[in-house]
Design brief:
Length: 278
Amino acid sequence: MQALSFQRPGCLVILVFQGPAERLNAVKTLCDSVEAPDCVLLHEPAGNPAHGFNTGLKYCYEHCPGLQAVFFLNDTVRPYPFFTRQMAQAFTLTGTDVVYAGVNYQREDGLNSAPHCPFSHLFLKNIIPAGSFAVSFDALQKHRIFFDIRMGRAGEWHFLLRLVEKGFRFEALRESLAEIRESPETGNRLSPHEEAAIRSYIRSTRFSIDGHVMAEMAASVPGPTPRSCGIRNRGGEQGRWKWRVLKKIWSVLPLRLRALIKKGYMRFTVAVDAFWES
């Protein structure tokens, strides 16, 4: 709660208490004693984290039509003071539906940064934990998406894949905007049943994926070698080197410049398509 009080722009806190009803008044007293932003306290008797997230989402759908975006925290996540500022800026500059960032993991041996993974890795494992992403509320309200309580610890991963399935656009930030008090291995470990359920969902679902994500996925898969093609390709290694340089340059560009480049590219491709169709 105190970490959220430092956020600028400020945020509305929907606090869902998952525990015995007789302890609800004690939780309310504790919340009132903390200098925090506006807070709505809700009670959810079920202990599954998906139940808690769904209770908060249901309240937002029914009572908070003016929200710009929503993000999800649990008791292991502490957002940094610039979390909402960076997220709001990314939404404004890119017009995307989901913004996600890096996180730092607090361990006994110190603080460790999780390595940045390409978005395509989301189909292999959950690379976007709770506390590292925000979702446009208008897009969520349109589809009224909830967490699937049957997915257990794979619920957050499944929720993100549902957003991809519905055509939500994702934008990555290289900065770490939150801290998590656990290790990536412990937090993402699934039971055999949960693993089988999420893999089955991925295999059986047709996803709506942006073109830049498809290009990223294609670039990460090694193509046939010149020997297997029966030709000599001296430019192959040079092409891969240029691609790595371009990706490095893109990662350090300011968000505003990246948005202008994307907009110009989209206008150029539309003009080319119109030329060939004429």
